[in-house]
Amino acid sequence: GAVVSQHPSWVICKSGTSVKIECRSLDFQATTMFWYRQFPKQSLMLMATSNEGSKATYEQGVEKDKFLINHASLTLSTLTVTSAHPEDSSFYICRPLPIRTAFFGQGTRLTVV
Amino acid sequence: EDKVVQSPLSLVVHEGDTVTLNCSYEVTNFRSLLWYKQEKKAPTFLFMLTSSGIEKKSGRLSSILDKKELFSILNITATQTGDSAVYLCAVEESSGNTGKLIFGQGTTLQVKP
């Protein structure tokens, strides 16, 4: 069964609005959450790493003010895409630790129109 | 710079064929290598490899790691149309953010009836 629940699974929003994506760990405490982005026909790219109770670490080229990550509890991490633009349309997916066999959330397909 | 390279990038075979997918890596602090299958949604975990020369097997799929030559292969025998997917290889780093995965570009496999 799923070890992490990610919502929503898909979302369509208007350009300029913000979208929040949630990843909730089930039956365990996720001390770390990795957030990935995948554009069509490309591989997964790590965007940022969040640790419970501290600021997220962003990969080079990822705007921290645009992609807000909150990891306020051991069971919930959120990614908010602020002022979304069509180029932010992508597949966003989370992966929690400590689960060594590397399960992912179900993913969120974001379409910005 | 750490990198993971998969080949071929795409492959078309007929049902019953055997395929071999390749993954080579250059990662400073190697911990493990993982294989995933992705079909229009979140990646599904297949194998985690940590030791050289030990084959892991699951049904028609098998994989092996060579830590001296820095590569892994994923074999699929007697392919079926349901094997059509993108196969992702990822290497887990052991330093800093334990559990950070670096992904290859993926191999798109199409199995024709």
Task: Give structural notes.
Chain A has 113 residues and is mainly β. Helices cover 0% and strands 50% of the residues of chain A. Chain A has strands at 4-7, 10-13, 19-25, 32-38, 45-51, 57-58, 67-73, 76-81, 90-97, 108-112. The termini of chain B are far apart. Chain B has 113 residues and is an all-beta fold. Chain A binds chain B through residues 32, 34, 42-46, 49, 57, 93, 95, 97-98, 100-107, and chain B through 34, 41-43, 45, 48, 88, 90, 92, 97-106.
Show the helix and strand layout.
The complex is a heterodimer of chains A (113) and B (113).
Chain A: E1 4-7, E2 10-13, E3 19-25, E4 32-38, E5 45-51, E6 57-58, E7 67-73, E8 76-81, E9 90-97, E10 108-112
Parallel strand pairs in A: 2-10
Antiparallel strand pairs in A: 1-3, 3-8, 4-5, 4-9, 5-6, 7-8, 9-10
Chain B: E1 3-7, E2 10-14, E3 19-26, E4 30-38, E5 44-49, E6 56-58, E7 61-66, E8 71-76, E9 85-93, E10 101-103, E11 107-112
Parallel strand pairs in B: 2-11
Antiparallel strand pairs in B: 1-3, 3-8, 4-5, 4-9, 6-7, 7-8, 9-10, 9-11
What oligomerization state is this entry in? heterodimer
> Beta-strand level of the residues of chain A, as a percent range?
over 45%
Helix content of chain A: under 10%
Q: Name the strands of the widest sheet of chain A in spatial order.
A: 2-10-9-4-5-6
The two chains with the largest interface, and their residue counts, are: A-B, 21 and 19 residues
Main β-sheet of chain A: number of strands, strand sense, barrel status?
6 strands, mixed
DSSP strand count of chain A: 10
Mean pLDDT of chain A: 90
Order of helices and strands of chain A: EEEEEEEEEE
Radius of gyration of chain A: 13 Å
Count of individual beta strands of chain B: 11
Shape of chain A: globular
Largest sheet of chain B: 6 strands, mixed
